[in-house]
Fold this sequence. Notes:
globular, five-stranded antiparallel β-sheet, 5 strands, 3 helices, homotetramer, alpha+beta, 38% strand
Amino acid sequence: MRNEFSWSVRVYYEDTDAGGIVFYANYLKFFERARTECLRALGINQLQMTEKYRTIFVVKATSVEYHAPARLDDELRVTVLVKEKSRASITFLQEAWCVDRLLSRAEVKVCCVDLDAWKAVAIPPEVLKLVTMFSLEAG
Amino acid sequence: MRNEFSWSVRVYYEDTDAGGIVFYANYLKFFERARTECLRALGINQLQMTEKYRTIFVVKATSVEYHAPARLDDELRVTVLVKEKSRASITFLQEAWCVDRLLSRAEVKVCCVDLDAWKAVAIPPEVLKLVTMFSLEAG
Amino acid sequence: MRNEFSWSVRVYYEDTDAGGIVFYANYLKFFERARTECLRALGINQLQMTEKYRTIFVVKATSVEYHAPARLDDELRVTVLVKEKSRASITFLQEAWCVDRLLSRAEVKVCCVDLDAWKAVAIPPEVLKLVTMFSLEAG
Amino acid sequence: MRNEFSWSVRVYYEDTDAGGIVFYANYLKFFERARTECLRALGINQLQMTEKYRTIFVVKATSVEYHAPARLDDELRVTVLVKEKSRASITFLQEAWCVDRLLSRAEVKVCCVDLDAWKAVAIPPEVLKLVTMFSLEAG
């Protein structure tokens, strides 16, 4: 069993392209919305985090596979799971589902960066709750 | 004769929606690209402007009519013309054309704002060149 | 009293720009999400509508005023109200609020178009429920 | 020496986010613009291709590393190189540069799909010019 967080995303015209399906780059937006809501569900507000620690999360790498297309009006279930964690970075495993069909699977690596020096720094302790609650090992 | 600035914009998948045409909100992006390039053509860089005067241009109102759709791969000609000018704001009249077909016509009102106080302030003198060169009255 | 529909929209990084606020063109997306959800709340699915009547709603004109900026993590309340109705078109009056602060007010005119002939046609009867339920006169 | 195609992309407000830099998902748009212009430079129009062969290119996988941020007004050089080719798919190696600084490197795998059956089919012969002209082996 995987103890993953999931968030619902509705597809609007703004998300689609002339192929009649969701524009592939937009899945990165959906995945980020789910990560943000996962933090919010743990009581973490990214702006307050930034003010308190002078740090920001920066996306360092994304890797996305597209399995099936989503269409206008589809309701997607977007999941969040911590795959790996180091001192300054977290790699998420994320999926987008429409009912029981896997549309897309991604790995997103974010790095915690000092706002002033723009250098990698340790992840704030509050965020580590994420790792304990929603990780492959925790399941 | 109108002494307008014009800028070429190509339509990619990212600009279209499931209706097979350019998503209407994206014309605001095209119009902004043309305004930015109009300033650049006059030797004005918005970032340098902001650093020098601590001011920024903020869009206060937009009004867009959609006459005909643009499609993937279309090359649009987007025009810029100053319609009105006050101490702190400029209203642009802009159009998007595909060959000889008018796709969209807009009015965009931008206001010069002080970055610190976030209040309307006088437009930097360099930008007034815009008004003399590309305005309805100047034609 | 106004009998308006309202829909909640959260601001993510994807919605903001380098000014630190929501990019003005993105309010058009927020307004469309609210119109779509308003139809859905009345049991209307736009795709089914299109299949049944071979019609589609096309945005003909938008007019937006920007009063105050929204920022990352803000939760906006976006409203929908029918202002005017003709045989083939509806003009919506829409607003975006953050708590008790009006951020943006817009008028959006949509036209019902025949998919094959791409000509204005009468609005499907189901959609007229919108007009009776959420209009300035109905309040 | 690598025989790559390159295309210039300017950064506008629409491309940035509240971090003051280009929103990471938007690099996928920049990479697609460059691929499209690479095809156009070879005399290939994707819409005509679709009409002639009833095929379309679908993005199957993307993998992007982010090395340094781009900012408002930056002019990026986006490159296109064919890394691998099979009967129905092409994997591109793409980079985004700002002057001599590498901002992002990506692999994008596109698959040629039959519009009616939505199944992988052989790449149209015209497109194979791409492979001979702009590939790692060709350099």
